[in-house]
């Protein structure tokens, strides 16, 4: 059972149906598939399309689930209406922002006046319409409200109305300039599930294709949810498959050939060699973040190396041997490049606060003081006279903010690369009832929060300085 959105899905940009799509639909119908047009349009602007498809086992879902028709000429099977008077708050808000109001009943469009925007809509869809004195005073049941206006104004209306209409109406965009309202229970997804049940078709045997926000519920409800190549990103995020073709390139035919007629091989589980550049970049960024945070020299793409020869390090090792001093009992302090070999060779390598970064990267300890502030005395007191306590292996509870940020960044890079919605801190969600919102990912917050304390615990247990000293030694004071 195939559910097809019209605008920007089945229809090309010039409002035509390509011969490729028509031929594929005819073959799918002949093979026994039910073809269902599923659109936000009223029936008045769908009849000629249904006639052109020419399928005997076809159905039409109009007004985003507000009405369901069978065959051609279309016969009304089901209609979901609500009292126009219950939407007065929507009408008042629309008039406050100066956008046009269009309401729908049966096969007619009802408007208050014919503005340029409304006229363009009527001409585009060849809509049959009725003009009334006041939509606010219209007495009767309707199936849909459409606000027609600039996107920036409609976004303000959506934000203002969302909480006022919660539980009463569905609200969604079918086009950047069309904000729609339907009664509860009227979404494409609910209409899909209901029609499949009425016809005895298992939901797993349904395919839904769309391109916009009002298609999300349908794509989520179907056994196979498909987004066309030109679809909005939130719909792509929910889809099981994204077509290679756009609506202008025969996307519907691609899906029919691939999943219904099976003339196109579905390469599930097969490997094709390619250069995954984006994945490489993300993994490389994650690797360098980890390497930088924890000074893992082997993982650094670029690192400073100091060659051997006649060096301070060799001289240190030689003198210690001559004096019978074990290398583990030596301490070396320095600040510049020529001190690196010595700091690496010593049992304890120390970089003063004002040292060059390559030396700090090699050091076991970085002083809190600079050479002007008694760095040598700090090391002697800490490691020779032991008048300053060295908290090796002790754990102090603290909030490791920097570690949390690094882990959170890594998590969000992975979530973005592989579209792992559960790991996204912020994600767009579209409910079955037609509402949409940005959700905060609690799990995505908890994971780096827990991990930062785990990392900090082992950090403190294995380092000779506490967490604060560790980060200050790498990046300096705030």
**Weakly predicted, low-confidence segments:** 431-435
Major β-sheet strand ordering? 5-4-3-2-1-14-15-16
What is the chains' assembly state? single chain
The helix fraction, in percent, is 25-40%
Number of strands: 21
Outline type: elongated
Q: What structural category characterises the helix and strand content?
A: alpha/beta
Beginning-to-end CA distance, first to last residue: 62 Å
What this model shows, in words?
The chain is of the alpha/beta class. It has helices at 6-10, 19-30, 47-53, 88-97, 116-125, 151-161, 188-198, 216-221, 233-238, 251-260, 277-294, 312-322, 340-345, 357-362, 375-384, 401-418, 442-462, 467-475, and strands at 2-4, 35-38, 58-62, 67-70, 75-79, 82-83, 100-105, 108-111, 129-131, 141-142, 144-148, 169-175, 178-183, 207-210, 224-227, 241-242, 331-334, 348-351, 365-366, 426-430, 436-440. The protein has an 8-stranded mixed sheet. Strands 9-8-7-11-13-12 form a 6-stranded mixed sheet. Helix 8 (216-221) links the parallel strand 14 and strand 15. Helix 4 (88-97) packs antiparallel against helix 6 (151-161).
């Amino acid at each position: 059972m195939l559910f097809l959105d019209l605008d920007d899905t089945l229809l090309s940009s010039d409002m035509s149906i390509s011969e490729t799509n028509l031929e594929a639909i005819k073959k799918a119908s002949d093979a026994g598939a039910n073809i269902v047009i599923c659109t936000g349009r009223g029936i008045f602007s769908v009849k000629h399309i249904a006639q052109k498809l020419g399928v005997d086992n076809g159905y039409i879902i109009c007004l985003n689930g507000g009405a369901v028709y069978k065959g051609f000429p279309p016969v009304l099977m089901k209609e979901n209406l609500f009292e126009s008077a219950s939407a007065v708050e929507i009408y008042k808000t629309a008039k406050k922002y100066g956008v046009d109001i269009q309401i729908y009943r049966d096969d007619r469009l009802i408007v208050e006046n014919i503005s340029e925007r409304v006229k363009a809509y009527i001409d585009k869809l060849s809509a049959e319409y009725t003009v009334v004195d006041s939509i606010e005073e219209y007495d009767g049941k309707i199936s849909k409200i459409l606000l027609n206006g600039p996107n920036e104004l409609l976004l303000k209306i959506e934000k203002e109305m969302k909480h006022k209409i919660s539980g009463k109406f569905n609200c969604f965009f079918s086009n950047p300039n069309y904000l729609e309202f339907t009664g509860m229970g009227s979404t494409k997804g609910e209409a899909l599930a209901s029609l499949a049940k009425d016809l005895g078709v298992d939901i797993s045997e349904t395919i839904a294709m769309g391109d916009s926000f009002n298609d999300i519920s349908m794509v989520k409800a179907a056994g196979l949810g498909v987004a066309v190549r030109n679809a909005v990103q939130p719909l792509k995020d929910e889809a099981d498959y994204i077509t290679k073709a756009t609506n202008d390139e025969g996307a519907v035919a691609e899906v029919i050939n691939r999943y219904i007629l099976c003339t196109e091989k579905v390469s599930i589980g097969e490997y094709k060699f390619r250069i995954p550049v984006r994945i490489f970049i993300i993994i490389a960024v994650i690797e360098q973040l980890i390497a930088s945070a924890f000074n893992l020299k082997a993982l650094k793409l670029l690192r400073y190396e100091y060659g051997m020869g006649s060096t301070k390090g060799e001289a240190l090792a030689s003198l210690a041997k001559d004096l019978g001093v074990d290398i583990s009992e030596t301490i070396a302090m320095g600040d510049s490049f020529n001190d690196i070999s010595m700091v690496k060779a010593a049992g304890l390598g120390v970089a003063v606060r004002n040292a060059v970064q390559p030396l700090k990267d090699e050091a076991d300890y970085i002083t809190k003081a600079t050479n002007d502030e008694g760095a040598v005395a700090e090391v002697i007191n800490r490691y020779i006279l032991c008048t300053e306590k060295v908290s090796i292996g002790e754990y102090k509870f603290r909030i490791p903010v920097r570690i949390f940020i690094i882990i959170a960044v890594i998590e969000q890079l992975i979530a973005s690369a592989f579209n792992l919605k559960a790991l996204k801190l912020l994600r767009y969600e579209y409910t079955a009832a037609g509402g949409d919102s940005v959700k905060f990912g609690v799990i995505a917050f908890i994971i780096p929060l827990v991990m930062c304390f785990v990392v900090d615990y082992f950090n403190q247990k294995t380092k000779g300085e506490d967490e604060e000293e560790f980060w200050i030694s790498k990046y300096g004071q705030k």
